Model the fold of this input.
Amino acid sequence: MQLIPCYSTAIGTFIFDSRLGLLDDPPRDEPERFVKATQDFLHYTQELRSGPPFYKIMETPAWKGFCKASDFLIEAGKKYVEEKEKQLSERAAKEVDIPDKRGSLLEHMFTKGELAPEEIIIQATELLMGEWILRPKRVNGLCTFWQKHPDIQQKLYSEIASVLNADEPVTADQLVESSISESMSKRSYKIVPFYICKTIESLSKDLVLGGYLVPAGTIVQMNLYIQGRSELYFKNATQFQPERWLRDAGKHFHPFASLPFGFGPRMCPGMDGK
Done:
């Protein structure tokens, strides 16, 4: 989890336009507690989802742990958001304008005025949680696949070397050209997804699955781990073959065969751009 401090700097700058302190020496206490609360939140969420729903009739240890982590995360997120809101108010009062500087995500949210303060807090907190915990896991997974497949690693290196110029800064257009890198990410999601199961919104109508009638209103979970490794959807499913995801590979897969980021309005905001 040593990648978390690095990502905290990046995501903190993106959301709040400031460093959050995990790279300080010594690290700040609150960001470390935020990371621990995020880990607890994900752990207890999975325990509550997969275990008997005793928490509906009594306060189980898992439910108490979930509530404690949730309360801390919301309060911490609220603090970050309020600090940024105060900065924006002070800037507006002084009529300070920074035309050449791209604002943070929070600044964009406040400027657009489409979300209530409570919604902004939840959005920013969810994004911060996801980036701090899930993004390092993704990078760790990719590095593991590179180490196990030196031939693919060499292809990636050759592509990067052909696209990037050592004397110039990296641009978004150059990253889009890195097709092998994108395909490696897609394949790693299929073999080792962020979540074992992904919760789908409750059914809007009755549905028959495998001969069983599932009534409307039922919350459904999709097992990403099994689907991503299923020969029913992917040939040689457990083999790391990122080239199968190249746009010109001529292969077509059902768009719903694997949905690591979900689908629809509640799709994960961290999904890679196309």
About this structure: The chain has nine helices and four strands. Residues 61-93 form the longest helix (33 residues). The beta strands are 197-200, 207-209, 212-214, 220-223.
